[in-house]
Amino acid sequence: MKDQHDNKTVDWVGAPKSQIAIFERVVSVLKFIQVTPIATTSILKDAALSDMSLRSAQRYLKGLEQSGYIKRKLDGGWSRGDARYFLTDKAKQLFGVKG
Questions:
Q1: Which stretches of the chain drop beneath a pLDDT of 50?
Q2: Domains in the chain, ordered, with CATH?
């Protein structure tokens, strides 16, 4: 919240993110999944979504999954909160990846 006596404080609550910044975040996450052998929720949160809480990162990844860019895999040893993520064919086409 902006203090009436402080001209340097900025109120970021409700400030719109630029569309370019949103696009760059999506590309960053997808590229990270592409090059990371085991891209789990916690690894993605720490590396590509470090400014988000774990729960926000989970919701963000769920949105990418619902949009068809990533798929989530739950193995026997992985908890629901720490799923593994892989690129779908739709995302691979963005980067010219075959197969």
A1: none
A2: 19-94 (1.10.10.10)
- How distant, in Å, are the alpha carbons of 4, 18, 30, 68, 85 from that of 65? 43, 22, 11, 5, 9
Q: What is the pLDDT of residue 95?
A: 82
pLDDT in tens, 22-41: 888 999 999 999 999 999 99
| Helix, coil or strand: residue 58 | helix
| Helix residue ranges per DSSP H, the chain | 19-35, 41-47, 54-66, 89-94
Q: Global pTM?
A: 0.74
Range 10-39 burial, b when 16+ CB lie within 10 A, else e: eeeeeeeeeeeeeeebbeebbebbeeeeeb
How far is C-alpha 1 from the geometric centre of its chain's CA atoms? 27
Region of 51 (left: φ > 0; alpha: ψ -120 to 50; beta: rest) is alpha
- In one letter, which amino acid is 79? S
